[in-house]
Amino acid sequence: MATYVAPVPHVNAHAVQPKRSGWTRWLTTTDHKEIGIMYMVATFVFFLMGGVEALMIRLQLGAPENTVVSPTTYNQLFTMHGTTMVFLFVVPMMAGLANYFVPLMIGARDMAFPRLNALSFWLFLAGGAVFYASIFWSPPEAGWVSVVPLAESQYSPSGGQDAWIYLVHLTGVSSLLGAVNFYVTIANMRARGMSWARLPLFVWTILTYAVLLIFALPVIAAAATMLLADRHFGTHFFDAAQGGSPILWQHLFWFFGHPEVYIMVLPGFGLISEILPVFARKPIFGYRAIAASTVAIAFLGFLTWAHHMFTAPIPEAILIFVMLSSYLIAVPTGVKVLNWVATLWRGTVEFTSALLFAVGGVSIFLIGGISGIFLATFPIDWQVNETYFVVAHLHFVLWGGAVMPIFAAIYYWFPKITGRKLDERAGRLSFALVYIGVLVTFLIQHVMGLDGMPRRIYEYDNVGHLQLYNQISTVGSFILATGVLVTVINIARSLKRGVVAGPDPWVANTLEWFTTSPPPVNNFDVIPLVRSVEPMKDIRREVERRSSSAHAAGAATVPAGARQVGT
Amino acid sequence: MGQLSTLLAFFTPESGGSPNANEINSLYKVELVIALIIFAAVEGAILYALIRFRKRRHAVPAQIRGNTRLEYSWTIAAALILVALAGLTFSKLSSIENPPNSSAAGYNADGGQLLYASAKRQLPPNKKALDITVIGRQYIWQYVYPGASEPDGLGAPYSYQEMVVPTETTVSLDIVSADVVHSWWIPELGGKFQAVPGYHNYTWFKIPKPGVYKGQCAFLCGRLHARMLATVRAVPPAQFEAWLANQKRLISEANQAAKVAREKLGAQSGAGQVENP
C-alpha cells in the first residue's frame, strides 16, 4: 500500500471551548457572530440616541425664536448628533454587519484574529461610553467637525471637547484594528474557488472600507492629538498668533472626513448590490463594473477633501482641481446607480421589505448625489455651503447610501441571525414611513438653505417662509422617527414570534445561506467549493440535478442490486 | 412661463444685489435644469422597472450579467455631461470672480485711489475700488473703512453690524477674524467667505440701487452664532460721503471724550495709582 496521501490543508481558527452561559459569555466571546451582534445592538442603541437628539433639534427649530433648548444645549445637541451618527452608528454598524457576515459569505469559520476582533468591539464601546459620559458634565459644543480655534481651550474650556478627542482616539483604534482584521480575513480565508472575481460585492466594499480606514484614520488621530496638545500641553499647532494654522485643522480633518463619507456609504452600496439581485431574481448587472467603481470611488475619495473648504482662504488652483476631482467621482457613482437599475430591469421583482429599503435607498441617494454636483461647483458652493442645503445633501447621501441599506440588511439578514423572519407587513409600513419621512424632512431643507438659512443656528427670524419650511421639516422628522420605531417594535416582537426562517428563506445567492439559521459556532461543517459569484445557485442546481437523476434512476429502472442512496 | 420662473426661483439661491450673485444664480439655473432631467430620467427608470418587472405568474427573470457596450456608453455619457458642466462653470468663472469697474455715478473720492496695498485681492480692471476690511468677532461684525487719520493706520472710520456702502461702486472686502472662524455672507450679494484668524479672504460686490441686504455669520463660531447678524445698506454716493464724515466725527468725538475722562481720572487719583491698598 504505497498510495500517496496528499496532506490535507487544515485550519484551526481557534480552539472551540465550551460555551459559557449568561452575561460572561458576551464579555468573553471571540466568536465573530456574537461580536457582530454586540456591535449591531450597541450601534443601534446609539442610532436611537442620535435620533432623539435630532428630534430635539427639530423641535427647537419648529418655530422661529423658539426657546425649547438654550443656545448652549442646542450646540451640544448637534455636536452629539453628528458625532454619534458618524462615529458610533454608521461606521461601527458596518463593522458589525461585516463581522457577522464577511466570514459567512466567504466561507470562513471566523475572522483572522478573533481576540483582536473582541478588542475592537470593546474599544468602540469604551469610546462611546467616554463620549456619552460627558452629558453628565458638559458635552462638546464645537460641532462634529470641531473646528479650531473654536475647539481650542480658550473658546471651549469644557472637558466635553476632550471627550470628543478621546472618542476619536478610541473608536479610531477600534476601527483600525477591525480594518486590518477584515483585510487579512478577506485576503486569506476565502473558500476554495472564491477568486477575487467571485467575491460577493458586499465583501468587496468591506475590503475597500478597510483600506480607506487604514489610510484615513491616522490623519484624524494625528489631528486630534495635536488638538489635545494645544489644549493641555501648551503647543500652538492651530494658533495663528503663534505661527500655527487654523486652516491646517480643516485640511487634516477633511482629509479624513471625506473618505469617511465613502467609509459610510460604500458598504451601503455593497448591501444594495447583494439585496437587489436576490429579489429581482437576476444576477447583478455588471459585477466587474460595480467592483471596479467601488475601488475607483475609494481612490478618488482621497483627492476631493478640499471641496469642504471652498469658502476658506485657499488658492484658486486648488479650488479648480478639487471641483474637477469631485465631478470625476460622480462618474463611478453614476455607473453604480445605472447598474442597479439594470439589475432590476427584466427581472421579477419581489417587494419584500429588504428590497424596498434597498431600492428606496438608491432613489434617496440619487437626490444627494445630484445635489453633490452643485456643491462641487465652487461658485455655487459659495452660496449654498454651510447652509441647510448642505444639511439636506448630507442627509440624502447618508440615509440613501448608508441608513436605508442598513435597514434593508436588517430585514434581509435578521432570519440568518435569529432564525426567525421579521414581519413583512410591519416592514413595509416602516419603509413607507421612513421613505416619506426622509423626503418631507430633508427636501424642504434645500429651499431653506437657498433662502439663506445657515446651519447650526439655534434660532432664526421668520423672514420669508422660513417658519413654514421648518415646520414641514419638523413634521417630517417625526414621521421618520415613527418609521424607525415600527422596525424597533418589529424586531422586538419577531425575536420570539417571527416565522421560523430555515437556512435559506429568500432563496439567495451567497454562502451565508448555506448554513443553518442561526449558524453553528464553526459556521460550516463542510465548506463548499465556490464555482461562481453566486455559489448558492450552483449548489441548488447541483442538488436538483442529483436528486432528479436519483429519482429518475429510481423510477425508471428497478434492477436488483441498485445502489441504495444513503447507505 | 411666469409660473416656471417662480418655481425656479423657489429652487435657486438668492440674487439681485450684485453681479456676482446674479451670475452664480444663472450658473445654478443651468445646472438645475440638467440635474432635473437626470433626476427624472433615473428615478423614472427605477419606478418603471419596479412596476413593469414586478413579480408575476409565469414571468421568467432574464439571466443577463451585463452588457459591455451599454456600460461603456453610459460611463462615457456621464463623463461627457460632467465635462459640459465643467466647461459651463469655467465660462462663468471670470464674471463671478472678477469685479467690474465702478460706474461713473459711483463714489469716487480721493481720485478713486481707495486701495490697500494687497496684491492678492481681486481688483477691477482700473484698479479702483472702495476697500473695506471686514473683521469677524464673537459675535459681531466690524467694518473698517479707508481714511486713516493717523500715520500708524489708526483713526480709520468704522462701524459695527451695519455696513453702509455707496451704490454703483465696486466694493472690495478684506475678510479677517479677531478670534475664531466666522463666515461673511450676504446671500443677495454673492457667495460666502470664511474669516480665519491669520488669513485674509477676499470678495467684492457692486450694488446698483439703494437698498438693505441682510445676512448673518455662516460658520459656527460659538454659542451666539445665530445672533451674529450683518446688514449692508447701499445709499447714493453723496449720502455715503455724508455718513462717512459723520462716522469720523462721532468716532473722534468719542475718542476726545474718552481722553478727557482719562485725564480727569488721572487728576483725581494720580495716574497709574491704585486706590485700594
Description:
- The complex is a heterodimer of chains A (567) and B (277).
- Chain A is an all-alpha fold and 567 residues long.
- Chain A contains 15 helices and no strands.
- In chain A, helix 7 crosses helix 12.
- In chain A, 57% of the residues are buried.
- Mean pLDDT of chain A is 93; it is low at 556-567.
- Chain B is α+β, with helices and mostly antiparallel strands and 277 residues long.
- Chain B folds into 2 domains: 2-54 and 68-97, no CATH class; 109-266, Cupredoxins -  blue copper proteins (Immunoglobulin-like, Sandwich), CATH 2.60.40.
- Chain B has helices at residues 2-10, 19-52, 68-97, 237-269, and strands spanning 130-137, 140-144, 158-160, 162-166, 170-177, 182-184, 193-195, 201-206, 211-216, 229-235.
- In chain B, strand 6 (182-184) and strand 7 form a beta hairpin.
- The longest helix of chain B has 34 residues, at 19-52.
- The termini of chain B are far apart.
- The interface between A and B is large, with 83 and 80 residues.
Core attributes:
heterodimer, A: 567 residues, mainly alpha, Cytochrome C Oxidase, Chain A, globular, B: 277 residues, alpha+beta, Immunoglobulin-like, 2 domains, five-stranded mixed sheet, three-stranded mixed sheet, 4 helices, 19% strand, elongated
Summarize the model shown.
The complex is a heterodimer of chains A (567) and B (277). With 567 residues, chain A is mainly α.
Q: What sequence of helices (H) and strands (E) makes up the elements of chain B? A: HHHEEEEEEEEEEH
What is the radius of gyration of chain A computed over CA atoms, rounded to a whole number of angstroms? 25 Å
- Straight-line distance between termini of chain B: 80 Å
* CATH homology superfamily of the largest domain in chain B: Cupredoxins -  blue copper proteins
Q: Count the helices of chain B. How many?
A: 4
Structural class of chain A: mainly alpha
Helix content of chain B: 25-40%
Number of E-type strands of chain A: 0
| Percentage beta strand of chain B | 15-25%
The CATH top-level class label of chain A: Mainly Alpha
Q: How many structural units, i.e. domains of chain A?
A: 1
Averaged pLDDT of chain B: 88
Question: What's the pLDDT, averaged over the residues of chain A?
Answer: 93
- The helical percent of chain A reads 55-70%
| Number of discrete helical segments of chain A | 15
